[in-house]
Specification:
single chain, alpha/beta, D-Maltodextrin-Binding Protein, domain 2, 6-stranded mixed beta sheet, 5-stranded mixed beta sheet, 11 strands
Length: about 220
């Protein structure tokens, strides 16, 4: 029993747009070691008193780490879960990092475009599965070009007429002369848990889930206030 109590629980945190909120969540729980991630070169830290290990990973990698047990828990956007369909437990919507997955096109094209007339599109995206499913449901043949960054550049250089990407405020689209055409999905940050860890470390994992839930509610309540 003592060995199980002292066994490390590994938690994967996402680099990028969700990291600050994730760090604030755990700092609010009194876990100060995560401040080390303010230095973007740090990849791992430990809270030895609580027997917690934190990792920072590319968001797209977190569902894989959690599914295979390299991390017991993780925080990741719902967009990645919808795209990847990994076998993980998803107990909490953390409520921060809200964004939308949209189809966008150049403003000049938008002036004369009618989405109801679409039959064939070439689309650049980081989300090939979600894009394929969306256009397939609408009966549109789509050539999907998978990219890992700088999607806004694709229409400007003729790689693709349109993109499917995440937007929060839409400012990046506007700055690159793009206009939102359709919304595919909405996403917020989620807590995910490895299914085996949920069984083998049940009491500790459930206690941690509850602590995260309460802290998340306090943060959201404070933000609304």
């Amino acid at each position: 029993m003592e060995a199980a109590k002292n066994e490390l629980i590994a938690i994967a945190l996402p680099k990028g747009r969700l990291l600050i909120d994730a760090l604030q969540l755990f700092e609010g729980m009194g876990i100060s070691c995560v401040r080390a991630f303010s230095d973007s070169r740090r990849l791992i830290c430990e809270d030895q008193d609580r027997h917690l290990r934190f990792l920072t990973l590319r968001p797209a990698d977190i569902p894989t780490y959690v599914e295979h047990g390299a991390a017991d828990m993780g925080i990741v956007g719902k967009d990645q879960l919808l795209e990847q369909h990994r076998d993980v437990y998803e107990p909490l919507d953390l409520g921060f990092g809200g964004c939308r997955l949209v189809v966008a096109e150049p403003a000049a094209l938008h002036e004369k475009d009618d989405p109801r007339s679409w039959s064939y599109l070439r689309v650049a995206t980081k989300y090939p599965n979600l894009a394929e499913q969306f256009f397939s449901r609408k009966g549109i043949q789509a050539e999907i070009i998978k990219l890992t960054g700088s999607l806004e550049l694709a229409p400007l250089v003729g790689l693709a007429e349109r993109i499917v990407d995440l937007v929060a405020t839409g400012q990046t689209l506007k700055e690159n002369g793009l206009v939102e055409v359709e919304e595919i999905a909405r996403a917020t940050a989620r807590l995910i848990v490895n299914r085996a860890s949920l069984k083998t470390k049940y009491l500790r994992v459930q206690a941690l889930i509850e602590q995260i839930r309460k802290q998340g509610e306090r943060r959201l309540g404070g933000a609304r206030g």
